[in-house]
Structures are given as structure tokens and as C-alpha cells.
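Minutes, project huddle
Topic: does the predicted pose make sense with glutamic acid bound?
PN asked that the exact inputs be recorded in the minutes so nobody has to dig through chat later. Recorded below.
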Amino acid sequence: MSQPKSQPIFRFAPSPNGKLHLGHAYSALLNQKLAREAGGKLLLRIEDIDTVRCTPELETQMLDDLKWLGIEWDEKPMRQSENFETYANALKKLQAAGLVYPGFMSRGEVTKIVNEAKKAGTIWPRDPDGTPHYPPNDKNMNKNQRAEMLGSSAPNSYRLDMSKALETIVPPLQWHEKDMHIEADPKAWGDVVLARRDIPTSYHLACVLDDADQNITHIVRGNDLYSATAIHRLLQELLDLEAPRYHHHKLILDEDGQKLSKSRKDTSLSDLREQGKSPNDIKILIGFS
Ligand code: GLU
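Predicted holo structure (C-alpha cells), as shared on screen:
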């Protein structure tokens, strides 16, 4: 599947777990514009690892909305739910390198530990999205304790041992953002999830593997994923994958300055279509020219 890297390759990678909104329209249109200007290709990746929340109906609606908007793809779309084996193999590789540990705690148990630490006056670290770091209890288990736990319960998650992972790579870890070199700070994320019991991979792992598989050279996506790029760069180093260039774009916000959500009806493309809006009206609404 490997292709020569001479032609720039862009991708739009939505998740069909809700309706596409104006923010998705902006991202897809910007990807198409930049791909065309660069004489490159634009690929679609359907990020449907959450096979419960991502439904065939939402996927059909998503494809139809994008077509209506005038987005065209240069290759057949990639569907992540067909790539679980690739993700499992990469996880095994990281496990074999001693960089992964099983996490047994539920969200409730994590919250309890964090709250108790707070009461005792400890400032608990939080990741750039505001989620508390996973407590070190599971990482610090000795071999016997871990074997005993694995004998009695299935892990809730598999986590990257962030400190070990950082020892493995050769610094500095950077990424190319437009014309700048950005220092990546994956440590800020703590021991990120690589796979879960209910979803056998994570967005981060699947994303970097598929970007490499699709030979993506340019990643154009919303600013909400800017900080996550540090994790992606780390995983690319650990898995020996080439780093694409990144371009994080502005987010389309609602009238209260909040990020749009997939559950809001009035900004979903399908609802705007039903109200009689044209693709051009959408471009005007998001300030895309
Ligand atoms: N699937 C992600 C989303 O819909 C985007 C992932 C990416 O562009 O890296 O937010």
C-alpha cells in the first residue's frame, strides 16, 4: 500500500458518532482547499472505533452531508473498524518493549483517589483536556501483584508508561506546525490510554497508525487537537512512523463562544440543509472563502 511521498496527501477524519456540524464543514473545506493548492490528494478516514456510538445511519448521513458540501475524495475511504488487527499488533509491539501496563481502575475509582488526594492537600495533575492523570497504583504493582490481578479480572485499560516511553526516545520531540517547530510535551498527558476493554484501541493509537498507513503528509484539523499532537508525535517515534506536517485551524464557536457539539441541532449540517441552506450559505456562515 506504500506510495511514493512526492505528492502531498491530506485527510479528513470524522467520527460518525453524531451529526457533522459547521466545525466539520470548515475542516473538510479547508483540507480540500489546501490539498488542491498543493496539488495533493484528499482522503477520507471514517474514525469509527467506537462501534456502539458510530452507527451506519450516522455514517450515511455524514457521507451525504460531505458530498452535498462539495467535498470529493481521491481514494476509497478508510474505515477504522476494519483495522483493529493493525492496532492490536502495534499495542503488542509497545507491550513487548515494556512500555504498556494494564489499568484495573474504573473511572469511579480514579475519581475517589483523586478526591482523597485533594482533601489531603495534594494538587493532582490534570491533562490538557482537564482529565486527572491516572493514579500510579497500577503502574507501581510488582510482577506478582499484577499477575494476581490479571488472574481475577480483565483490565479496564492498557496505558502507556509515559516516563518509560520518554526515556526510550531521543529528544527533542517536536512537530512541524505550519512554518514553526513546536516543542511537544507528551508528559502533560500522563499515562494515556492505548486500548480499553470495550474499545480495543484508542483514538491516539489508531490515528497515528492510519495516518502512516494512508501516507498522510499534511494533517489539517481543529485546534482542539493541538495538544494531543504531542502524544501523536511520541507514538510515531515509539512505533517508527514518519511524522506528517500539522496545521491546526481555528474552531467554529457558537454565539456563546463555546465549541460546537454534535448533539446541538441548530448547527448540524443536516438540519441546516433541511432549513433550506445551500452549501454556499454554509461557507458564508463559517467565514470560508
Ligand atoms: N476523529 C476526530 C474527530 O472527529 C478527528 C481526528 C483527527 O483529525 O486527528 O474529532
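Observations noted during the meeting:
- The CA atoms of residues 19 and 189 lie 28 Å apart.
- The beta strands are 9-12, 41-46, 78-79, 100-103, 157-160, 174-177, 180-183, 193-196, 218-222, 245-249.
No decisions taken; revisit at the next huddle.
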